[in-house]
Design goal:
The protein is of the alpha/beta class. Helices cover about 30% and strands about 20% of the residues. It contains six helices and nine strands. Helix 3 crosses helix 4. The chain is globular. It comes from Methanoculleus oceani. Belongs to the precorrin methyltransferase family. This is Cobalt-factor II C(20)-methyltransferase.
Length: about 200
Amino acid sequence: MLVGVGLGPGDPELLTLRAVRLLSEAATVFVPGNLAYDLVRSYRPDAVVLNFPMTSDEAYIRTCLEENADRIAPHAKDGLAVFGIIGDPNFYSTFSRLCEVIAGRYPEVSFATEPGISSITAFASVANVPVAGGFFVSDGNGPESRIFMKVRRPAALAASLSEEGYSEFVLVERMFMPEQRVYRGDDLPEKSDYFSILFARRSRA
C-alpha cells in the first residue's frame, strides 16, 4: 500500500502523531524534494528524495511522474510505502496526480491518505486571521468544488446544488470520532449531525 502522509506547513513540530508513526513503520519513505526531506529526516534519514519539477511543461511533468511511479510501485506492492508531502495530500498536492499514474501502470497497488495541517489553516494561525463565514480558496483556476460545514439538512442542500450543476456529493458525519459515517451520492440522509461536512463537485467534462 502507498500512503500519502501530510507533513504540515513546514515546521517539523507540526507533524501529527500518526504521521510520525507511519514514517517509523513504513518499509520505505519517499519525499518530493529536500524541503519535505528536512521534515522527515529526524524520523527517516533514509527517506528517498524524488524529483518533482516545478514547471509548466506538462510533458516533462508526466515523464517525471511515470519515472517516480516506477520507483515507488515495487515497494507499495510488497509492503507499506509512505509518500510524505508538505501540507495535506488531498489539497492541491502532487500525490493525487501520482496516484493516478501509479493506478494506470500498477493497478494492484492500493492507496490511502493521512491528513496534515494545510497551508490554509496554517496561514490563519501565522497571520492571526480568524476565519468565519464562507470563504473562497483557489489555485488560480475557477471553482469546481464547494465544502459546507455544520450541514444539518444534507439531502435538501444537495438537491439545491444539483440545480447549479453539482453532481458529486460526499457527506462525513463526526469525522475521526467513534460514530464516523460517510455518505455518497444519492445516499445522503435528510438530517445530519452538527459535526458534518458536505463536499460537492460539479460535473466534469
